[in-house]
Design goal:
CATH architecture of the largest domain: 2-Layer Sandwich
Strand content: 25-35%
Distance between the termini: 45 Å
Number of helices: 10
Strand order of the largest sheet: 16-15-14-13-7-12-11-8-17
Largest sheet: 9 strands, mixed
Structural class: alpha/beta
Number of domains: 2
CATH superfamily of the largest domain: Dihydrodipicolinate Reductase, domain 2
Shape: globular
CATH topology of the largest domain: Dihydrodipicolinate Reductase, domain 2
Helix content: 25-40%
Bound molecules: alpha-L-sorbopyranose
Radius of gyration: 21 Å
Number of strands: 17
């Protein structure tokens, strides 16, 4: 990578997303012709032992336990926010004030007020800001967008999205931060419907009104043992705590362009692990995608001869497909982590050219406005217009 300009990255947080982001910072300049070589300068977390282990294993040069000090360092160019949702607001605003470019994990914020303040801060700072809804950078999803933009689907009538998981069906699964409103803001609605709302805005358009219903199945859970990672750990002395977010949220949506859509988010769908699924139905064709088969896109076209019409499965691994020419020969599939690498590639390009990348904090605000309208609808039992 001789000759590439260096870009110093500080990552705050180092769990699941910390790993996904780190491999992306490392792989992006190797597989792609990026303008910059990201330098894994410092990783920040609260617990020194696991933090040091993480840094040593993943190649971060330094560790720190105070994110405020880190985001204000003169030698940092980019702040990567990979922490629980409720902390994004303070970290992102401080990083923007310090003039750092920001790569922020989703969900963006816990409410609209936070989201507005975050957007105002990055606008004032004039830095590059990115919100990591990684599924936009799955080649099959980009192909779906290309087919829509080429008119192959025609006028869109329906979006049918579902994001189904099953990791908390066991009532003894501990009360991790994702199940606490003060840390997560909301449950699968914020965590999973946020991804689907992002994809729907990308592929179909803006949402104008929603009606939603939430459900809560397990009201109390064992407290996790101290220091346990989010998806592990057991009960602490049999003590239990209250689950303060919804367990499932089903939302119907009206799009500005007249399309009608649905969004289902739950962590109570046994058999579904990370089933991020959508269908788009239009006047000329239809599309279907399922993350658990992420190298494939299903496409139905009215342009096919009527005797041979039917959904075809496109294996999205040809060199002409988005991002693929940088990876493997046709049929040699890619995985979840590649989406994060693609995000870093596009982020580095945006920084080097001083141009926006999408989704960004503006999109983050719009997504949170839709999600908040959904929660309001669930609380009131009424259809709610999305703030614009
Ligand atoms: C957990 O529900 C989770 O990791 C989400 O937080 C991610 O955003 C999603 O991509 C997979 O599931």
């Amino acid at each position: 990578m001789a000759g590439k300009k260096k870009l110093n990255v500080a990552m705050i947080g180092y769990n699941f997303m910390g790993r996904a982001h780190t491999q992306a910072w490392r792989n992006a300049p190797i597989y792609f012709d990026t303008a910059y070589e990201p330098v894994l300068k410092v990783v920040c977390g609260r617990h020194e032992k696991p933090l040091n282990d993480f840094a040593a294993r993943w190649g971060w040069r330094e560790t720190a336990t105070d994110w405020r000090e880190v985001v204000n360092r003169d030698d940092i160019d980019v702040v990567d926010v990979a922490t629980p949702t409720a902390t994004h607001h303070d970290i992102a605003i401080s990083a923007a004030r310090a003039g750092k470019h920001i790569f922020c994990e989703k969900p963006f914020a816990t409410n609209v007020a936070q989201a507005k303040a975050m957007l105002a801060a990055v606008r004032k700072a004039g830095i590059t800001h990115y919100l990591n809804h990684n599924y936009r950078r799955c080649p099959a999803v980009v192909l779906a967008k290309q087919l829509i933009d080429a008119g192959k689907i025609g006028r869109i009538f329906h979006w049918r999205g579902a994001y189904l998981q099953s990791w908390i069906v066991d009532p003894n699964f501990p009360l991790v931060w994702q199940l606490q409103k003060e840390h997560a803001g909301s449950g699968p609605h914020g965590d999973l419907n946020s991804h689907n709302v992002d994809l729907a805005r990308y592929l179909v358009g803006e949402i104008k009104a929603v009606s939603a219903t939430t459900a809560s199945f397990i009201k109390e859970r064992p407290l996790p043992s101290a220091g346990s990672a989010a998806f592990q750990g057991g009960a602490k002395g049999g003590k239990r705590g209250k689950v303060t977010v919804e367990d499932a949220c089903f939302m119907n949506a009206e799009f500005v362009n007249g399309a009608l859509g649905s969004f289902n988010a739950t962590r109570f769908a046994l058999g579904r692990k990370n089933y991020n699924f959508f269908e788009v139905y239009g006047s000329r064709g239809a599309l279907a995608f399922n993350l658990e088969r992420m190298n494939e896109l299903e496409f139905f076209s009215e342009d096919d001869p009527s005797c041979a019409r039917g959904f075809r499965t496109i294996l999205v691994t040809e060199s002409e497909h988005p991002y693929i020419s940088h990876w493997w020969p046709p049929g040699h599939i890619i995985g979840y982590e590649h989406e994060f690498t693609h995000a870093v590639v596009d982020f580095l390009e945006a920084v080097s050219k001083g141009k926006p990348i999408y989704p960004n904090f503006q999109d983050g605000l719009k997504i949170v406005q839709v999600l908040e309208a959904g929660l309001k609808s669930a609380a009131t039992g009424k259809r709610v217009m999305v703030a614009r």
